[in-house]
Write a structure and sequence with these properties.
Length: 414
């Protein structure tokens, strides 16, 4: 129908009866097509039922064929790897056979091998000599820098016996342990600091590890006050148990040798110290006892350093520290053996090192009063003294000195 406004053709409208008729016809057509579809599906199903076994067989065959192809590919890969391994094994066998032939030829010709070993030994000896020469040069410069010299001595001339002088380092006299009481504490501390610094550099140049380690309060060389204690080592020499640190310096409150009374008191403090087998300290816990133990440790270090450089230092000469260090610096074997390079030295201290630390400590802290006879009556003492005065000439004792038999400990000990 036409629109009254635009006069255009619009949708056609159907009545209810027409719509009902059209729906009924459409439903009938749908049912007819559905029955046709079902017929076609049933026919196709029947046709497939006859083809299903053949299709399954073909699918199974294809799956098996794929598996066979996969296995054949893996087998081919394994064959290639086996061929490579066979070639490598063949090469290794050929190399092994060639090495065996070379070894057999080398056994039949020992002269080239001996020549090679002798050449290596010669090169090693040459390197060792060069290294020893370099160390000797450094040591000589070190001696000149610290000015280690002997003053006041006289060599033997014209059949006359020579005399020993005093050794100095940095123009400061380092006395033997028996003469320490004659110098003020500041002098002793200064000269011991120089000696410790010299010894540290000397052992560093020579590559020697000492049994007693020196540490500083400032954790740097020469900073603060030094202390000394044993490192870990064997039981040989009896030094390893003295691992407690001892101060290697005297307190400023230690009396000096300005008067005879102060000299006598310091003599008693440095000499009348009993020795104990304790792991830490002697029986006297005073600062003087600890310093004396530290001094004995320093003497032991110097003696062991001399031993490593083929210099023999007897117990009677252990107190001559600078003299022993001078002997080390003048040794013909200086720098040939070390703990750092070949030929290597055994760790401190080997059984061949003869000096025992306990003996050195007893010699350093010897007390003459402990070797006197037991007390007797005054009459017996007077008679014994009179008899001794008749046999021996009178000896004037210097104020502040103690007399000790020299054949027991030798020069340099109280």
């Amino acid at each position: 129908m036409d629109c009254n406004n635009c006069e255009l053709k619009q949708r056609q409208f159907f009545c209810e009866n027409c719509l009902r008729t059209h729906l009924r016809d459409f439903r009938h057509q749908t049912q007819h097509f559905a029955s046709d579809r079902d017929d076609q599906v049933s026919k196709a199903s029947k046709a497939l039922e006859t083809m299903e076994p053949a299709r399954i067989r073909r699918a199974t065959l294809v799956e098996w064929q794929n598996r066979v192809d996969e296995v054949m590919g893996g087998l081919a890969k394994l064959r290639k790897e086996n061929d490579k391994k066979r070639d490598r094994l063949r090469t290794l066998r050929e190399n092994l056979a060639a090495r065996r032939r070379t070894l057999s030829a080398a056994k039949l010709l020992p002269q080239p091998t001996t020549h090679l070993a002798s050449r290596e030994t010669h090169e090693l000896n040459t390197l060792s000599v060069t290294l020893a020469r370099a160390r000797s040069g450094l040591v000589q410069e070190l001696v000149e820098v610290f000015n280690v010299v002997e003053v006041g001595g006289r060599p033997p001339i014209g059949g006359k016996a020579g005399t020993k002088g005093e050794w100095t380092i940095g123009d400061l006299i380092l006395p033997v342990p028996g003469d320490i009481r004659r110098y003020p504490p500041d002098h002793i501390n200064a000269v011991i600091t120089h000696t410790v610094h010299f010894l540290s550099l000397l052992t560093f140049y020579l590559g020697i590890k000492l049994p007693f380690e020196i540490s500083w309060a400032g954790n740097k060389l020469g900073v603060g006050q030094p202390s000394i204690g044993a490192i870990k080592g064997s039981e040989a020499g009896g030094w390893a148990k003295w691992y407690t640190k001892h101060p290697l310096h005297l307190s400023s409150a230690t009396p000096s040798a300005s008067t005879s009374t102060s000299s006598n008191s310091q003599t008693q403090s440095l000499s009348a110290i009993p020795v104990s087998e304790s792991y830490t300290e002697a029986a006297d816990p005073s600062p003087q006892a600890s310093f004396t133990t530290a001094l004995a440790m320093l003497l032991y270090n110097v003696c062991y350093l001399a031993y490593t450089q083929s210099v023999e230092v007897p117990l009677s000469q252990a107190g001559d520290v600078l003299s022993n260090l001078w002997s080390v610096c003048c040794s013909s074997e200086l720098g040939r053996k070390s703990h750092e390079t070949a030929p290597a030295l055994p760790p401190p201290t080997p059984l061949s090192f003869p000096l025992d630390f306990t003996q050195l400590l007893q010699a350093t802290t010897a007390n003459p009063a402990s070797r006197t006879r037991p007390s007797r009556s005054s009459k017996a003492r007077r008679s014994s003294r009179n008899a001794r005065d008749k046999r021996e000439p009178t000896i004037d004792e210097e104020d502040g000195w103690d007399l000790v038999d020299g054949d027991n400990f030798g020069d340099g000990f109280p």
